Amino acid sequence: MNPLAIAPSRPARLDSVLTFAWDSGEFTASDAMAATGLTRSTTIEALDELVELGLLVELPNAREAGEYSKGRPARRFSLARDAAVLVGVDAGERHITVRVADLRSQPLSTLSIEVDSDADAADVRSRLVVNAIETALEEAHRSRDDVLSLCIGVPAPVGSDGRSPRHPQNYWARTNPSFVDAMSWAPIVRIDNDASLAAVAEGSVGGAVGSENYIALLAGERLGAGVVVDGRLLRGAHGGVGEMVAFANVVGVGGSDGIGTRLTRWAINARAHDEYAADAPLARLAVDELTGRAILDLAAAGDPDAVALIERAGVLLSRIVSVMAGMFDPAHFVVSGAISAGIAPVVESARQHLPKDMHLPAPELVISPLGGDVVVLGALAAASTAARDRVLDVWVERTPVG
To answer: What pLDDT is stored for residue 135 in this prediction?
Structure first.
């Protein structure tokens, strides 16, 4: 692919036909004409121009393909799905996941690596992400020149310029080390909050499909929310909508640590105070084995100590849901992230503990089906949306086509 300069103007017919093609499989000129409302001659002219640009491919007609057809065979077209690639990245605190896909968002490669969050300074993290993207492109047999649109999700608020505000402990500068500059080689770049991208994924293919008012809560290591109201993802002046630091002032929540993190801390504290019998599973596990996932598994197996922690986590989640429901009035509240795979008992407990006297109807509390892929899926969906909106700006030369 050779991304070209942004064109100051272009025929509207190109946008109409390409929009139709992006959502279609194989189609004929008549199909495109019916969908766009353009005349036959204008439709055919746009199809030929898009083929010349390399964004559409013309397929063999029915007769050439060996299918009998009376009269003049119809010309058939499809999106040139291999003309470029999309890249979605989940740049989490402890992991980096990169997915490369074609223009239909079909995956070509996926790369995941673990990150030492205690040792990666901003410049180290930036290089890690760049190198991971390069490696994922190589595994897909592609290169930087093939990238049309790239989106990175980070655990930080992100403004419209792709940058994060200053954090008192410089945490956000480390998790979003000016990725917008490091990725300037890509024609279309979007840097966004990871929970916001989780909300994009939940609305596209997850637990909130069809809903226009919902909250996606990343609840594993830390709390973060993506908020959609009336079909629009909310951001705020600095990208801070959905940041959970305010919960430090909410009784019974007391901070933005996630449910997995809290389960671990509660179990360690209880064991330090000899609250478990010596032969109890939570007493026998090594400290580094006392993870949120292990506690969820023990609760599922019926261990009473783990069940008590799950009940405590349910109360915590119910308070988070009730506070956010009072602020944003969502119809659905989706618990997202890797922890969602085993969090059903916590969610069921939260449903039981939701206040019965809420001023607004309580949202439907659901579990995401997307698991730990939710952020990278949201990043890929966001990259696809940006590509659809701007592909012709990137592709068309300064001289008007046609």
So the answer is: 98
